[in-house]
Amino acid sequence: MGPRCWRWWHWSAWPRTRQPPAGSTPSSRQQFSTQEQTTQICVVGSGPAGFYTAQHLLKHTRARVDIYEKQFVPFGLVRFGVAPDHPEVKNVINTFTQTARSDRCAFHGNVVVGRDVTVPELREAYHAVVLSYGAEDNQALEIPGEELPGVFSARAFVGWYNGLPEKRELVPDLSCDTAVILGQGNVALDVARILLTPPEHLEVLLLFQKTDITEASLGVLRQSQVKTVWIVGRRGPLQVAFTIKELREMIQLPGTRPILDPADFLGLQDRIKEVPRPRKRLTELLLRTATEKPGVEEAARQALASRAWGLRFFRSPLQVLPSPDGRRAAGIRLAITRLEGVGEAARAVPTGDMEDLPCGLVLSSVGYKSRPIDPSVPFDPKLGVIPNMEGRVVDVPGLYCSGWVKRGPTGVITTTMTDSFLTSQTLLQDLEAGLLPSGPRPGYSAIKALLSSRGVRPISFSDWEKLDAEEMSRGQGAGKPREKLLDPQEMLRLLGR
Amino acid sequence: MTGWRVHTMGVQAREGKMGARGDTDFSVMSFTGWHQHDHAPHLRSLHLLPLGACEASLACSTCHVYVSEDHLDLLPPPDEREDDMLDMAPLLQENSRLGCQIILTPELEGAEFTLPKITRNFYVDGHVPKPH
């Protein structure tokens, strides 16, 4: 055999069970087998969808997985969405951190896919690309007066108290006595809870741990005059989207009492007999709270309450009403609705009647929405998702999606986890079936060069860990788990840039 | 059934796939060889439960398991917070419990904890069920 076949002959002369030489690197093993090369996979988004997809891929393959993130810091809504008084929900950060630290994974923050680098460029550099960038817009009310001062999306409000840098200037005016939240999901209840929890409780949880709510927003909340929060839904008690754990928290919220109209619950006891368990338990709790006389202790607690929250049903927003000088929101005009159909699919239909509800703060919590990321990626503007079959983006081989951008913006972290694993399994099937591009791909080395030529300096996971340590150290002084950094310039200075 | 494993606290656990029930195929863990200890271990300390995203703080339902019928009533009833999280679990059944809350007392010898179909392949911590 000639010299050309030298390598191949050596390899095939080895007994089948012989391992590659100890200490060999993946690239040197490549010399011995044309079958082996490192699969390069890219994930866009570092929230639960991105991390769980990456986690699953890393466990079941020898691939390298690079995670891109537009924010400076990882974790998406786990950091910027989950309420400060729900720290246990953020425990997933521990497993994500382990993933990011594994040697076949790299985090690249401060990279805006669609602006700093395009999806076609990523698809050229990697064998597969997974889009897991979630839903960063909110569903608009699309009613007159929505632009008035005093009207915010719940999403912006949550971003503000959770330290999302682009929302730090929000500083809502909380000098009114009544706030109206439109929407009856868990985000609506989070916002209500933050508005109503006496500040001394936000600082000091039952276990005397302070929360990671930003000091700046705590300062604003301390000055709040808001005494009543209405949580308003277009449909009825059987269609509320919040879950029982969050409802219980509202009912037990210190310093507050619930206002529920028993008339909204007439006849419900019979109608829930055959309904699935989660809806049944939730409705039973609502019913009890609305119709049963509170026990002695609870009655005493309610009598001392200085704040109140209530649920209003069958009310759909028509217009935000301005103050006499036209300079801010002063109320909301609501259409009174009735239901057509039953159960989860029931639709609210206007009756023609209306009602005005005075208030100084309107928070719309009617859903999130994804944005299209790149002209090359198909997007369904009506559903607000990337068209896909089991996570394979329609008509774009090698492109996948997971999480909210795939299924729509509902569901808790567990739901997203399951979905991410399913997309990963789909990708693995395609990998094993030889459907992904063959031949080596450069991965991050190609993207790094592109970014550098565009003046973009990504933030690594170890950079994040420095910022993380700084946040925890600042929090420690105040007895909080962390004090979040809000200013991107300050973050860059801390990284020595 | 294959794959005996012994945990350091003396509880033996094994897992494998049972034959098809209808067209469904379960992964099952069963416990035998119990040794009495001063304090009973949590099921989760045996590292056979997948996931545990919230690290046993009753803030998720990823450790959802089905408990064998004969042993279901030997467990203390779930508290309200566990029931609230179980409400969120897909494929909920009468014998559903959150695995992170189960403590292995001697009466539970022979108990079988089955993973719901949707989670049985989702072992993130490297533990992969062995086929038989």
TrEMBL record, chain A:
Any Pfam family the entry gives: Pyr_redox_2
* Segments crossing the lipid bilayer: none
Q: What is its EC number?
A: 1.18.1.6
Q: Map out region (Disordered) in residue numbers.
A: 470-497
User: What SUPFAM superfamilies does the record tag this protein with?
Assistant: FAD/NAD(P)-binding domain (SSF51905), Nucleotide-binding domain (SSF51971)
- UniProt-annotated location(s): Mitochondrion
The cofactor(s) it depends on are: FAD
Q: Which residues form the FAD/NAD(P)-binding domain?
A: 40-195
Where FAD binds, per the record, is at: 49, 69, 77, 113, 404, 411-413
| Pathway(s) | Steroid metabolism; cholesterol metabolism
- GO CC terms for this protein? mitochondrion
Q: Which reaction does it catalyse?
A: 2 reduced [2Fe-2S]-[ferredoxin] + NADP(+) + H(+) = 2 oxidized [2Fe-2S]-[ferredoxin] + NADPH; 2 reduced [adrenodoxin] + NADP(+) + H(+) = 2 oxidized [adrenodoxin] + NADPH
An annotated GO BP:
cholesterol metabolic process
GO molecular function list: oxidoreductase activity
Give the UniProt keywords, A-Z: Electron transport, FAD, Flavoprotein, Mitochondrion, NADP, Oxidoreductase, Transit peptide, Transport
Binding sites annotated in the UniProt record for NADP(+): 184-187, 234-235, 246, 411
Oxidoreductase as UniProt keyword: yes
The UniProt entry, under InterPro entries, shows: FAD/NAD-bd_sf, FAD/NAD-binding_dom, Ferredox_Rdtase, Ferredox_Rdtase_adrenod
Calcium in keyword set: no
Q: Chief localization class?
A: mitochondrion
The family note in this entry says: Belongs to the ferredoxin--NADP reductase type 1 family.
Which PANTHER family does this UniProt record tie to the protein?
GLUTAMATE SYNTHASE 1 [NADH], CHLOROPLASTIC-LIKE (PTHR48467)
Can you state the subunit structure given in the record?
Monomer. Interacts directly with FDX1.
What's this protein's name? NADPH:adrenodoxin oxidoreductase, mitochondrial
Source organism of this protein record: Rhinolophus ferrumequinum
From TrEMBL, chain B:
Q: Where would I find the 2Fe-2S ferredoxin-type domain in this sequence?
A: 53-104
- In the UniProt record, which is one GO cellular component term? mitochondrion
**Keywords, alphabetical:** 2Fe-2S, Iron, Iron-sulfur, Metal-binding
Pfam families for the chain: Fer2
Write out the similarity annotation: Belongs to the adrenodoxin/putidaredoxin family.
Q: What this chain does, per the record?
A: Electron donor, of the core iron-sulfur cluster (ISC) assembly complex, that acts to reduce the persulfide into sulfide during [2Fe-2S] clusters assembly on the scaffolding protein ISCU. The core iron-sulfur cluster (ISC) assembly complex is involved in the de novo synthesis of a [2Fe-2S] cluster, the first step of the mitochondrial iron-sulfur protein biogenesis. This process is initiated by the cysteine desulfurase complex (NFS1:LYRM4:NDUFAB1) that produces persulfide which is delivered on the scaffold protein ISCU in a FXN-dependent manner.
Q: What protein name applies here?
A: Ferredoxin-2, mitochondrial
